[in-house]
């Protein structure tokens, strides 16, 4: 059958809308929403006909696809992360703790004292809600929060070093996700980059020689998403802060992925805690809220009150500020850090990264058992998963996965991405793999249902 003949077999929008199976949908969805779904499905069908040599037209299948598309009411939707990457940037990074979600809902459905001082009965400041919380965890004078860490770095540089020099090691001119580079951020902020040292070696004397009457900041950037090993040398935060104090120049440290617990106790090295950097004398510290901290997307700026006050008064602060929902999530997440044990138990990011392999194996075995119950052939295998999000780049951790062998792993994965909710796994050779590290207990039945659905 020729393509024009196949195209003529595709029903019209009006014909589909008159179908009794479609009419019942008007009780749940508006007429315009259903009509738009019908149009999109039929347009997609025509595109497939034009691309393929032959395609059978089945009206019942068309109606089923329309129903499925209506179930996907929103573009932004929950997915099952079976990749094993805990802080998955493409999948929304951190899962919020239950208490943070409750606090967000509580603030979202009511008016709040966002910028109102309840004691004085007059206008207040929105950042008081997180300053006290931060100061309970870190010995720091003040704090503000902006939309993300790139915004935090930009705002600090624009406030403290516009048209002046910022000294930074050449080996710390990092690039983060989305081709976002420290030199580019610095250029846009109006600060002048003064790079010192070499890619692999920077000494304190390099900083000393670079300081002049136009130097505004000494900047240290934590290489959170890569490591330089071998013939290397770098200046510690403490050494740089001592130099800054001697010369009367503030020291700013961009941690990138901030963490409030000492991960060395749990076998993860190379990631300094926020407390360590503050105790070593840093005047300003910036870090993300949705990476190792495990909260909402935000950029923390903490440090000396005089510098924070200047940053807060920058007109750009209004453009970069966070809303009440982010503040609610941030405040609730910070509260867990008053008790390290509770933080690890209640903050999903920390719980998943630090979860013992034996516990992951038990969860994987549970999934495998359910697969077999439904006639799905799979196997349990040992593997390695990553924290992700540009954090702990050398810290691959032992995990357990459920692996399904298939001749067409790409096609299998593609079908999984079309289920409700979509399932995102990873492909390794001829296997589609589901890493139990990032699978939540509530998602296990949904995963089994999705796999069963596409294998029928």
Automatic annotation (TrEMBL):
<feature type="domain" description="L-seryl-tRNA selenium transferase N-terminal">
    <location>
        <begin position="7"/>
        <end position="46"/>
    </location>
</feature>
<comment type="function">
    <text>Converts seryl-tRNA(Sec) to selenocysteinyl-tRNA(Sec) required for selenoprotein biosynthesis.</text>
</comment>
<dbReference type="Pfam" id="PF03841">
    <property type="entry name" value="SelA"/>
</dbReference>
<comment type="similarity">
    <text>Belongs to the SelA family.</text>
</comment>
<keyword id="KW-0663">Pyridoxal phosphate</keyword>
<dbReference type="GO" id="GO:0001717">
    <property type="term" value="P:conversion of seryl-tRNAsec to selenocys-tRNAsec"/>
</dbReference>
<dbReference type="InterPro" id="IPR015421">
    <property type="entry name" value="PyrdxlP-dep_Trfase_major"/>
</dbReference>
<protein>
    <recommendedName>
        <fullName>L-seryl-tRNA(Sec) selenium transferase</fullName>
        <ecNumber>2.9.1.1</ecNumber>
    </recommendedName>
</protein>
<comment type="pathway">
    <text>Aminoacyl-tRNA biosynthesis; selenocysteinyl-tRNA(Sec) biosynthesis; selenocysteinyl-tRNA(Sec) from L-seryl-tRNA(Sec) (bacterial route): step 1/1.</text>
</comment>
<keyword id="KW-0963">Cytoplasm</keyword>
<dbReference type="GO" id="GO:0004125">
    <property type="term" value="F:L-seryl-tRNA(Sec) selenium transferase activity"/>
</dbReference>
<dbReference type="GO" id="GO:0005737">
    <property type="term" value="C:cytoplasm"/>
</dbReference>
<dbReference type="InterPro" id="IPR015424">
    <property type="entry name" value="PyrdxlP-dep_Trfase"/>
</dbReference>
<keyword id="KW-0808">Transferase</keyword>
<dbReference type="GO" id="GO:0001514">
    <property type="term" value="P:selenocysteine incorporation"/>
</dbReference>
<dbReference type="Pfam" id="PF12390">
    <property type="entry name" value="Se-cys_synth_N"/>
</dbReference>
<feature type="modified residue" description="N6-(pyridoxal phosphate)lysine">
    <location>
        <position position="291"/>
    </location>
</feature>
<dbReference type="InterPro" id="IPR025862">
    <property type="entry name" value="SelA_trans_N_dom"/>
</dbReference>
<dbReference type="InterPro" id="IPR018319">
    <property type="entry name" value="SelA-like"/>
</dbReference>
<keyword id="KW-0648">Protein biosynthesis</keyword>
<dbReference type="InterPro" id="IPR004534">
    <property type="entry name" value="SelA_trans"/>
</dbReference>
<keyword id="KW-0711">Selenium</keyword>
